[in-house]
Amino acid sequence: MILRRVARPLLASIFIAGGINALRQKEAHAEAAKPLLDKTVGEKAGELPSDPVTLVQVDAAVKIAAGTMLTVGVLPRISSVLLLGSLVPTTVAGHPFWEEQDQQKRQQELTEFLKNASLAGGLLISAVDTGGKPSLGWRTRHAAEEVGHQVQGRTGEMQRRMGAAQGKAGLAVAKATKASEQATARAAKRQGRATGMAKGKGKALKAAKKGAGRAKSAATHRH
């Protein structure tokens, strides 16, 4: 946190100073920007503001406002993108080293161009800096993983419940089967007892008949 509070003002200082300087010397900056405007705006002058002085003032205002926002930490990522968008045309218009014929001037312009390229690198880092918070990509992946875990957890819970239900159903079937077998065994036992009693009564009846026959035969011999 302390590093960001120090680094952001250092990175923004050159843009704020450059914007103030551009407002003070807008005619000179407009003259330097005119060749680039002629190449880029060209025939679209009726659609876009083509007055070099106006564009220099707009660019300076963006540098000062976005630089101040970056300094105080207000929307630092957005302000870094704004500064980066302002830096690119300024660098191309202000330091076209490829057009210089003099070797010394060419080297000077190349050095300034590379300095601005270094600033662009710093702005790119600042534009993606989340201030220690998870990035959007990480949050998206984390949310997807969390949803996946929840789906897996619910699927596992449903499977466990289904397994428990199947276990209960199997236990109920087993109990019912056992109860049916026990009832069948009891019925068979009762039927066996009844059959035994019937056989016993039959034997007693036969014995009684035989006893009666013998008694009758004995009585007949006596007479």
- Beta content comes to under 5%
| Helical content band | over 70%
Mean pLDDT: 81
Q: Which of globular, elongated, flat, extended, rod-shaped describes the shape?
A: rod-shaped
How many helical stretches?
Answer: 6
What series of H and E elements makes up the topology?
HHHHHH
Q: Which structural class best describes the helix and strand composition? A: mainly alpha
How many distinct beta strands?
0
Q: First CA to last CA: what distance?
A: 140 Å
Rg from alpha-carbon coordinates = 52 Å
Q: How many distinct folded domains?
A: 2
Sheet of most strands: none
Taking pLDDT < 50 over at least 5 consecutive residues as the criterion, the unreliable ranges are none
Can you give me a brief rundown of this structure?
The chain has 223 residues and is mainly alpha-helical. The chain has helices spanning 2-24, 26-40, 52-72, 76-94, 103-128, 136-222.
What does this structure look like?
- By secondary structure, the chain is mainly α.
- It has two domains: 2-132; 134-223.
- It is built from six helices and no strands.
- It has helices at residues 2-24, 26-40, 52-72, 76-94, 103-128, 136-222.
- Helix 2 (26-40) packs across helix 3 (52-72), helix 2 packs across helix 4 (76-94) and helix 4 runs antiparallel to helix 5.
- The radius of gyration is 52 Å and the shape is rod-shaped.
- The mean pLDDT is 81.
